[in-house]
Amino acid sequence: MAVRVIPVDPFDLVIFGGTGDLARRKILPGLYLRFLSGQMTADSRIIGAARADLTEEAFRQSVRESIAEFVPKPKQDEAVISAFLGQIGYVTIDAKGEGGWPALKAMMRPGMVRAFYFSVAPALFGDIAERLHLHGVADGESRIVVEKPFGRDLASARALNEVLAQHFKESQIYRIDHYLGKETVQNLMAVRFANILFEPIWKAEYIDHVQITVAETVDVAGRGAYYDKSGAMRDMVQNHMMQLLCLIAMEPPYHFDPNAVRDEKLKVIRALDAVKPEDIVRGQYRATIDKGGDSYAVHSENPETRTESYIALKVNISNWRWKGTPFYLRTGKKLRARSSEIAITFREPPHSIFDDHTGWRENVLVIRLQPNEGMEMMVMIKEPGPGGMRLTQVPLDMSFADALGSEANDVPDAYERLIMDVIRGNQTLFMRGDEVEAAWAWADPIIQGWEARGDRPQLYDAGSSGPEDALMLMHRDGRRWRDIR
C-alpha cells in the first residue's frame, strides 16, 4: 500500500519563535521531511522570525543542526538538505515594537499562500496579530497557527479569542493540537464512519465503558516552574484528552467537512456532566530510593506545591447515545511506561450458551496512539485442543508497521500533517473558538472545586501506575484499569 503524496500550493510560511525549542524539534524538521517527500514545492519559502540578531546564514546553519539531530539518519540527504536550506529566510523581529516588520513585509510574495505560525508565548499573540495587519504583512486570506496553551481558564481563552478576532476571521485561525494529527486518531474516524461493522454498536446499549490513557515516563525537570502553573488537567485533559473523547463520542457529521466535524465535537463537550469530587483522583510523583531521580516538588522548585502531575476522572455524557456508559480518563508523568491508548470495552452477551463461563472476558477494541500505532480487537475463541469447549481471549492485531510494511515509515508526523493542512486551508483537525471555550467551561469548575477545598494530590511512586485511589475509582464500579505497558 503506497502512501500518496499530493503537493500543496506554493506558500510563504513565517515561524514566529523560529529559534525556539518547538521550531527546532518539530516544525523545521517536519517541513524538511515534507520537502523530501515532494509535498512542499521548490518555490515555497520558510521564514524564521525571532528576537535573536542572526544573519540568514546563521539561521540556516541552526536549521541544518536541527535536521541532523531530529531527522532519522536514513532520511538525511545532503543534496535535499542544501536545496531545502535555500528556501529558508530569516528576519529579526520585535513582537511588541516596530523593528523588523517592514523587512518581513518586503519578503512576502504576491500570489502565494501566506501562513504565520505563532510558536511563541500566548502573551504575544495579540501583539503579533495586530502588527501583521498594521504593517500589511497579512492579507484577507492569510492563515495563523496558534499553539497551546490557549488560555488557562475560560476567561483567558475568551480574551485570546477576542484579540485574534479583532484581526483575523475564524476561518483564518488554526488552533493546533498535535494529537489530532496522529494517524491513529484520524483512523478512529475512519473505523467508526467507514465501516458498518462498528457504528450500529457504538452506543451505551453495547459499550460498557471507555478508557482513555495517556501515560508518560518523563518528569517535568527543566520546565517544572512552567508546569506548576498548569498541571495535568490544564496541560492534557482540557485539550488533548478532550479531543480524543469527542472523536469517540460524537455523532456522525453530515459530511467530512471542518465545521460539520467540529459542530458534532462541540455537542459532546456541551453534553458532559459536571464531575463529582469523588470521581476525581489527583496525584503527584515522589522520588523512590531504588529508581533514583527527584520528586515533582523538587522539579517544580516549590516544596508546598499542590499541582497534580497525574489525574484520573470518571466522566459521563448526558445524551441518548452514551447515557449510562462512563468514560474513564487518566494521564500522568513519571509512570511505568510510555503509552497512549483508547480502549472501548463492550458489554457481556445477554446470555451465554456455554457451561463453563469462567474463561469469558469482554470484547475490547484498543486504539494505540503510541508507541506502535495501530488497533487491536480482543475476541473470544475456543481454546485449541480436546477436552470440551474452553474459551480463551486472543487479539486480532493490526499495527501500521505490519499492515503497511516499509510504507509505515513514510507516514507523516502529526506536525507535518497539520502544517500541510494549514497550507491547504483545511481546518478539520483544528479546534474552533467556541469548542475551546466550551472545554474550559467544563474544566473550570473542576479546577475551582479542588482549589476551594484545598485538596492536595496523593503521592505516588515514580515508575508506578499512579496513585492507589485511581485504582479504587474503577474498582468501586466493578471495573479495572488496563495495565500501563
UniProtKB/TrEMBL annotation:
It comes from the Bacteria. One of its GO terms (biological process) is glucose metabolic process. Keywords: Carbohydrate metabolism, Glucose metabolism, NADP, Oxidoreductase. Pathway: Carbohydrate degradation; pentose phosphate pathway; D-ribulose 5-phosphate from D-glucose 6-phosphate (oxidative stage): step 1/3. It catalyses: D-glucose 6-phosphate + NADP(+) = 6-phospho-D-glucono-1,5-lactone + NADPH + H(+). NADP(+) binds at residues 17-24, 51, 148. InterPro entries: G6P_DH, G6P_DH_AS, G6P_DH_C, G6P_DH_NAD-bd, NAD(P)-bd_dom_sf. Substrate binds at residues 178, 182, 216, 235, 333. Residues 14-187 form the Glucose-6-phosphate dehydrogenase NAD-binding domain. HAMAP family: G6PD. NCBIfam families: zwf. Catalyzes the oxidation of glucose 6-phosphate to 6-phosphogluconolactone. This is Glucose-6-phosphate 1-dehydrogenase. It comes from Fuscibacter oryzae. The lineage of its organism: Bacteria, Pseudomonadati, Pseudomonadota, Alphaproteobacteria, Rhodobacterales.
